[in-house]
Amino acid sequence: MTREFEGLQFPDAGTYELDAAHKRVGFVVKHLMVSKVRGQFSEATATIVVAENPLESSVTASIKTASVETGQVDRDNHLRTGDFFEAEKFPTMDYRSTGVKSHSGTEFVLDGELTIKGVTKPVELVVEFEGATTSPYGQSIFGFSATTEIDRDDWGLNWNVALEGGGVMVSKKVKIEIEGEAVLQA
């Protein structure tokens, strides 16, 4: 079910859960300052509360750090260590929105807090509303994508190697890319 909100067919108010089969929580970093490495987390959950006034909606999300995948087993294992996520001690990264900062067309900018390795910092998340529909199974669903860029040093993810010709092995800046569908809960 949908309703109109500022020219958009917006999902009805309610609590929605991220559909595990239709999601990607990914990241991109520069490697050796000349190429990009992409990765993702295979295990993530999110609850999105769509409010009667969509600008009062909120989201909470949790990502399992041990579920990191980059396509290279040795790199994935290194990312799980204390050099990066310290997955045994800090099994999740968590995000909580604190408000909708702005809205224009299908773009919503959320203020929020991201916690990694016990450190919580503010993060601005740019969310693109992709549309709402009813599935063939009668479920109310909406799609979205979201991006932000963080400095990994802010969360103590500061392992690196200086390069002989200048620069570092892994960039400090990390682009976060999220895509998914959310399903209304009964």
Describe the protein.
- The structure is a single chain.
- The two termini are 13 Å apart.
- Helices cover 4% and strands 60% of the residues.
- With 186 residues, the protein is mostly beta strands.
- The chain has one helix at 73-79, and strands at 2-5, 8-11, 14-31, 35-41, 44-50, 58-64, 68-69, 92-104, 107-116, 119-134, 140-151, 173-184.
- It has one helix and twelve strands, in the order βββββββαβββββ.
- The protein is elongated, with a radius of gyration of 18 Å.
- The strands form two sheets. An eight-stranded antiparallel beta barrel has the order 3-5-6-8-9-10-11-12. Strands 1-2 form a two-stranded antiparallel ribbon.
Structural key phrases:
12 strands; two-stranded antiparallel sheet; 186 residues; 1 helix; mainly beta
Put the structure in a nutshell:
The protein is mainly beta and 186 residues long. Helix content is 4%, strand content 60%. Strand 5 (44-50) and strand 6 (58-64) form a beta hairpin.
Low-confidence stretches: none
Q: State the strand order across the main sheet.
A: 3-5-6-8-9-10-11-12
Q: How far apart, in Å, are the first and last alpha carbons?
A: 13 Å
Number of separate helices = 1
Instruction: Tell me which oligomeric state these chains represent.
Output: single chain
Largest sheet properties: 8 strands, antiparallel, barrel
Helix content: under 10%
Write the layout of secondary structure elements.
Layout lengths: L1 E4 L2 E4 L2 E18 L3 E7 L2 E7 L7 E7 L3 E2 L3 H7 L12 E13 L2 E10 L2 E16 L5 E12 L21 E12 L2
Antiparallel strand pairs: 1-2, 3-4, 3-5, 3-12, 4-7, 5-6, 6-8, 8-9, 9-10, 10-11, 11-12
